[in-house]
Amino acid sequence: MAAKYTPAPRTGDDSKQKPVRLQTFSGANGLDEEAQRHTDDEGDVDGQTANSTQDKPKLETDLRNLFFDDGKRRIDFILAWTIDHKRPETARQARQVFEENLIKEGLELEYDTRGRDVNFVKVHAPFDVLKRYADILKLRMPMKMILAEQHMKEKYSDWETPLPSVGARLWNNTIQLVRKFMVPFHYDETVLPTVSRSYSCPYSSSREYLFEIPENKDEYFSKAIRSWIVDYILRRQSFNVSNSKTFSFGIKKMLSDGFYSAAYPLHEGHWKAGSANNARKVLFDHWANWTNCLKFQPIDYIRFYFGEKIALYFAWLGFYTLMLVPATVVGLAVFFYGLGIMSTNIASKELCDPHNNITMCPLCDARCPYWKLSDACSHAKASRIFDNGATVFFAIFMSLWGTLFLEFWKRKEATIQYKWDLTTFVQEEEPPRPEYLSKLENWQIFKMNPVTGIQEPHLPFWKRRFPIFLASYSIMLFLAAIAVTAVIGVIAYRVSMLAALQLIPQHVSSNSTVVATTAGLIYENASLVTTVTAALINLAIIIILNVIYGHLAFWLTDWECLRTQSEYDNSITIKLFALQFVNYFCSIFYIAFFKGQFVGRPGKYRTIFGGRQEECEAGGCLIELCIQLAIIMVGKQLIQNNFIEIVVPKLIKLVKRKCSKETREQKLAKTPWEKDYILAPAESMSLFYEYLEMVLQFGFLTIFCAAFPLAPLFALLNNIVEIRVDANKFTTHLRRPLAEKSANIGIWYSVLYGISRIAIISNAFIIALTSEFIPRLVYTSRYSPDESLSGYINFTMAYFNTSDFAPSDRPKDIHLGVISMCRYKDFRNPPWEDPEYRRSTAFWHVLAARLAFVVVFENVVVVITSLISWLIPDVPTILKEQIHREAYITNEIVLKTELRRAQGEDLNSLGGAHLSDENLRYSPHHSEDIELKKRSPSTGKSKSGSQIYI
């Protein structure tokens, strides 16, 4: 094949631009007349011209300049470079060798070198090259439907109109009702028609007659596949004249060495209002735009534009968000139930009754006064909102919800894999990372790769890798200890702050009414003020530590010198998730399981660093756990998810716009590849942070759901925003990412499964240790005379003789008078019983009940969730049948077509035959999701007029 290599200066004339048929998006009715005059922050609308308004959707639209100067060959990839002043000749030679190898491979190049800081190479892959690599990579491509139709008639003619059973008809009617209810949430199917699946098989150039190849062969392979094949070629070409350096190959190594500054496919067009219709704009208008925040996502079209890996993330995020709806409904029901019983609960009434005249022991030594139990009335009532019988139900429900979410996602994932032809996808052998090769450039120890047969640098495990791993994970433990230390600091703040607020009555002057009123309000809510301020301080520490952890985790992973990108990604995932998990959940675990558990008793408190440990309020620690969880979870979402991802980019863009000295004419003169170049690069770690954010949210939802039933509501609201934020980012702010393939969400499924198992244990202990559920249950079943909660508050309070205080610990504030006996929350013998202040019988009954509950709860929930996992197959039965049937039918089609070809029959006449739904259905249970739609004669277009490519 003749290859164009001579650099051809770019004329900038867009008049040669050729209209191209959109393969996956239908046009809008006409275009805004202001299209040519519209500009955005990066420039104009890429030279797009407005078409006249028509009465029907348009398929022919003027796209941005995506072609070589001849207006015929499509730009599949862009390589950009800047002048390397340190080693210009080395960089020039490397690029020249690399580009010559690309030409030998069959790619065609064109240059844009107009004396600017950045130069560009435009890469085009001819059909023969695409066909050759589709054959090598065994890409599954659609087959001619007429071949499938003939086989259907022969094999399954008596299956065409099966009589459904009563159960099937009832199920179908239910599905139709649900779909009618969900109609307002669907995207506009006149613009984005439903995509159906066709028969496919691995492409073979020797069996080209099996495939539906259009007259314009450049339209056969989608733009995503074209860029993916080009990237595959770029990753395999050498850029070194001699063979002395075995690993001097691949575009990633060239980017790492600075020979190229960027490599990316082009966006299809502009997304701004008034721009000519194009794939990018349609995605923005009907997916990324904020007006679609309550709409479902066009996952198939996301896949067409961004590839399977990114589309799978958005499919998972959309499914997760949809599964949050039932959890939100149940959580709201539990919350409103708690509001209803807040004031009617007998225990709350007893605690709030001032006539009970229960005097409590001081909350700190010497400086804190005695206080009345009724002062904690508001705190106790608030606790009852979250600490009630419904808490157990919600914990069990969320454990089951977590399991159902994971099981149903596996089924959804299997359906997606089938529809997108990923069921047999196998990741190719990964080459070594460029950073790995650069570090080991002068390494003397080599080992043969058993797959590729290439001698690669080898790091001995015990001599080199083990010491580094040991040091790396030791540093991780140290970083985790810093988070624990920060929590201890916040605990010290809480203790000192609460003690300081208890001194307010002694220092407030009665002459200032406003100050006295405010101080009195703070004094009455001292615990709440302390909890909220401590949680805010903890949130600030968490955000700061996250920034530090992010940089150090990457530094440690780079230090480990991992060979492949998958190993690198898995290592950074473990590190960042572990560090952020400790950072976010350390303080919450402390309040849930340790606060108030080992404080001792009046006269003999256990101390840390010379100070008393924190005690739970009279209403329990669950409300404090709820406040801490709410502030950290909601604060993280508001600051990180919304402010950093929405506000900060807009501020940066605003500053750039104000500082930019470019004129409108200069912006208009920019080429599409220049405009895409100034966008932020779509790095491989972009999706990593999105997954990490959602997985941590899943941890908040499940691990501590017993303490915060409103968590699903906040998660749902956040995710509705998050989907559009991420969609907007990928559509407008980033260069077009490479359309990578991926069959699943990778290691994140295992992380989610691990969190769901931890959640079962965590919620069991929260209910048993932190809430009052077990003590109330023990009291009503054993100690209550009428099996009610009447007398429960007195049951939970122990007596202490104030004369047993050490002289230095006695309260100096005696505004309540001389107190001979005070109460404290514990199960201990009174001073008049022998042995005094020892654990009472009730304590051991309650402890036994707590432990029994943990064992029963864990085993029951684990058994139920395991049973659910076993009963729900990972792949739907009907889908298994369809996969096996399609494999059989495809094989039969190939065999029979080969036989007819061997007999001399002309197969070219089969290309334009008309197909019907009745003839194409090969299963009596064919789901609508994969059912072939009616197509118009000879064009293969859907009813809406759009050409669909699978």
Automatic annotation (TrEMBL):
GO terms for cellular component: plasma membrane. It comes from the Eukaryota. The chain crosses the membrane at residues 310-339, 390-409, 468-492, 535-556, 576-594, 695-717, 747-769, 847-872. Keywords: Cell membrane, Glycoprotein, Membrane, Transmembrane, Transmembrane helix. Residues 1-58, 926-950 are annotated as: Disordered. Residues 937-950 have a biased composition (Polar residues). It comes from Biomphalaria glabrata (Bloodfluke planorb). One of its GO terms (molecular function) is protein dimerization activity. Residues 302-886 form the Anoctamin transmembrane domain. This is Anoctamin. It is a multi-pass membrane protein. InterPro entries: Anoct_dimer (IPR032394), Anoctamin (IPR007632), Anoctamin_TM (IPR049452). Residues 67-299 form the Anoctamin dimerisation domain. Pfam families: Anoct_dimer (PF16178), Anoctamin (PF04547).
